[in-house]
Amino acid sequence: MATITELKAVLKDTLEKRGTLGQIKARIRAEVFNALDDQSEARPPLSHENLLINELIREYLVFNKYKYAASVLTAESGQPEVPLDRDFLVHELNVVEDPNSRSVPLLYGIVAQLLHADKEEKTHQMFPRSSSLQFSRRNFDKPAN
To answer: FGFR1 oncogene partner (FOP) N-terminal dimerisation domain location, by residue (predicted)?
Structure first.
């Protein structure tokens, strides 16, 4: 007869191989967070940039089937429950899409464009640059509409 310890080990190994152990742990974390989340505590207003960034992250999480992580992000950040329209994001971020890029989250296309631009810049630029990304601080404190 197998001992309890051996049964636990086999069960854990089986759940890991099926990929369900991670899902179960994520679900438990999400449920604990939801139970502890104080809805009476007001969240700070989202800036326009944070709204867009959170939506890019949510789209990525949902695409990769990290649904519990996405639900925690939505609850914790105060992001609207209904996802922002992709065409709105494309317009706001000035992203150029082709038919192939529409099948993946915008974040993949943005990273690919930055990687491609970085490689081109390294071959054409003689002097190092101070930063690969230039961020404007103009709207970080302004709430999103």
So the answer is: 43-113
CB 68 within 8 A of CB 28: no
Q: Has residue 31 been placed in a domain? A: yes
Its domain, for residue 26, covers 1-37
Structure tokens at 45: 């207003």
Give the CA angle between residues 103, 105, 106 to the nearest 5°. Answer: 110
Give the integer Cα–Cα distance in Å for 3 and 18.
Answer: 23
**What confidence tens digit (pLDDT) does each residue in 112-130 have?**
888 887 676 665 554 444 4
Instruction: Say if 62 falls within a structural domain.
Output: no
User: How much is the pTM?
Assistant: 0.61
Burial class of residue 7 in the structure, from the number of CB atoms within 10 Å of its CB (0-12 exposed, 13-18 middle, 19+ buried) = exposed
Mean pLDDT value across residues 67-82: 87
Residue 1 maps to a domain: yes
Q: What confidence score (pLDDT) does residue 62 get?
A: 95
